Amino acid sequence: AKKVLLFGDIGIDDTIAILYAYMNDEIDIVGMVADYGNISRENALANIQYVRSLFDSEEIENVKIIVGAEIPMTGELPEYVPEIHGEYGLGPIIPETDGQDGVSENFHDIVEIIEQYQDELVIVNIGRLTSLATMFLLYPDLMRKIKSYYIMGGAFWVPGNVTAVSEANFHGDPVAAQLVLSNTNNNVTIIPLNVTQQAIATPEMVDYIDQVGELPMVKTLLDYYYDYYKERDPNIQGSPLHDVLTLMAINQEDMFTFQHLPVQIVQAREGTERGQSIADIRPYSNMEEEAEEEIRTHRIAFGLDYPKFYTRFMTVMSGQRFD
Ligand code: BDR
Ligand code: CA
To answer: What residue ranges carry the coiled-coil annotation (predicted)?
Structure first.
């Protein structure tokens, strides 16, 4: 199984991703860093603990939960989105949690997880990139040795979801997003809105999982999430599972088509362009003249095979076979 260190802002689709991992014996989440984003860092921490409390399994009990960032590197106070993810980040659910048990305030615990799993470890970022970028500032050599990163973020030549051009995770902290992309090369897979908007869970899919699966919460969470999206786009067929698709990607490369491109994040403090992700598809020859230093490229998913997504998602989430 792939060992995953997860950085997230534990809202609805983050939570579905965590449930997907728990149902999938090919993915072991060995640590989670909870950041502000969809909701406050405190709510994100409480949500991870609440979800974990629903499973009485040894393996899950000892997943290390680490307190992440409270505000972006840009310094301003974040704006949460309770209208999308619910007041506490779990739709209508108010998570009771038993205090701070099993939560570490020691950021160095992330180093211990990385050193324990080394080349086996995959880092998956499904929230703002503030904590991940902080790790590059504190432990640059360690972070450059990580084999692979999967990042949910960006929108390339398609509409954004926070502004006309910007996606929420990159918009939330453009400084952190650029810092991570400027310190990695050839080992980052970006799963942008280009493909996550296609990774739809329809009401029929959700009802089936609710009936046959043994997973709590899926219907409650996704019915709430779908209500928000349907209100804004009556034609949308279901909930776009941004974070689930990103976690799925670590084992299902054949679900996607990729391009390896240099990426820049617009560093405006406010306005439409803040956090816009720009990929450069000019032939390398043009860029080489301009480039003062090596051109860093990242693997970006532009195509999704929906039937493959559907089969894999339904098989894992319902515990049935969908071949
Ligand atoms: C991203 O932002 C959040 O709303 C979701 O959890 C996802 O990580 C989508 O732009
Ligand atoms: Ca998220």
So the answer is: none
